[in-house]
């Protein structure tokens, strides 16, 4: 693994993270942020997680947020205008010119990917790094069942896995064809340490 000293800094970079539920994506995103902070303690970081964005949205207890909450309970896909509005407003309100960008759990559909790509073009972001945490459907299901969350029923899990295969996988394949993106598929069934090491080994030449 590449070693950095305290005088080194990173180039401003953009990351998109994909992976089935239970892939360990959240843990690895946190570890990568910590790693970049060690390289450059003065770095700026803009982070948007679709899940966190919707959880904050539900707290508003409005007519629209309550309708959206019912969609989530059914494990259905949220309407496009909501997902686009959430991340779009986050970009508008919080993004700075020298921020690293971390996008987690988005885009989930090709239409969203096309709009996000337009945003990156507007922001002059090149070499956008896609990190896809690959775990099998069975591993994903077993990990979700092991979390013992209220909404992690067999039926809801199968629904989420189906829409990931039917919607998210084609979206990843679409982004891989675009020249602005660099794609890395990571074996998410390894230990946490091995997954993190594989990520760093793949992305270090872009930092």
Brief synopsis:
The chain has 207 residues and is α/β, with parallel strands linked by helices. The chain has helices at residues 25-39, 50-58, 63-73, 80-94, 110-122, 137-147, 154-176, 192-203, and strands spanning 14-19, 44-49, 99-104, 128-134, 181-187. It has eight helices and five strands; from the N terminus they run E-H-E-H-H-H-E-H-E-H-H-E-H.
CATH class: Alpha Beta
Oligomer: single chain
The named CATH superfamily: P-loop containing nucleotide triphosphate hydrolases
Indicate the low-confidence ranges by residue numbers: 1-9
Helix/strand-derived category reads alpha/beta
Shape: globular
* CATH topology-level name: Rossmann fold
CATH architecture: 3-Layer(aba) Sandwich
The termini sit apart by 13 Å
Structure characterization notes:
Helices cover 53% and strands 15% of the residues. A five-stranded parallel β-sheet has the order 2-3-1-4-5, sandwiched between helices. It has a single domain (14-206), classed as Rossmann fold, CATH 3.40.50.300. The protein is of the alpha/beta class and 207 residues long.
Provide keyphrases for this structure.
207 residues; alpha/beta; Rossmann fold; five-stranded parallel sheet; 8 helices; 5 strands; globular; disordered N terminus
Lay out the secondary structure.
Blueprint (H helix, E strand, L loop, with lengths): L13 E6 L5 H15 L4 E6 H9 L4 H11 L6 H15 L4 E6 L5 H13 L5 E7 L2 H11 L6 H23 L4 E7 L4 H12 L4
Parallel strand pairs: 1-3, 1-4, 2-3, 4-5
Helix pairs in contact: 1-8, 6-7
């Amino acid at each position: 693994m590449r070693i950095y000293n305290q005088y080194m800094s990173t180039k401003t970079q953009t990351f998109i993270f994909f992976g089935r539920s239970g892939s360990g994506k959240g843990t690895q995103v946190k570890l990568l942020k910590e790693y970049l902070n060690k390289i450059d303690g003065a770095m700026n970081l803009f982070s948007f997680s679709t899940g966190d964005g919707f959880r904050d949205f539900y707290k508003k207890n409005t007519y629209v947020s309550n309708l959206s909450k019912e969609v989530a309970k059914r494990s259905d896909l949220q309407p496009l205008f909501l997902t686009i509005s959430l991340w779009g407003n986050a970009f508008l309100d919080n993004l700075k010119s020298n921020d690293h960008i971390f996008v987690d759990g988005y885009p989930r559909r090709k239409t969203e990917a096309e709009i996000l790509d337009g945003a990156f073009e507007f922001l002059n972001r090149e070499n956008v790094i896609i990190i896809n945490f690959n775990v099998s459907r069975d591993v994903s299901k077993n990990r979700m069942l092991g979390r013992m969350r209220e909404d992690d029923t067999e039926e809801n899990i199968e629904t989420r896995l189906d829409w990931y295969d039917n919607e998210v996988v084609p979206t990843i394949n679409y982004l891989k064809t675009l020249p602005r993106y660099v794609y890395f598929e990571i074996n998410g069934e390894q230990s946490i340490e091995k997954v993190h090491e594989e990520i760093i080994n793949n992305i270090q030449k872009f930092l």
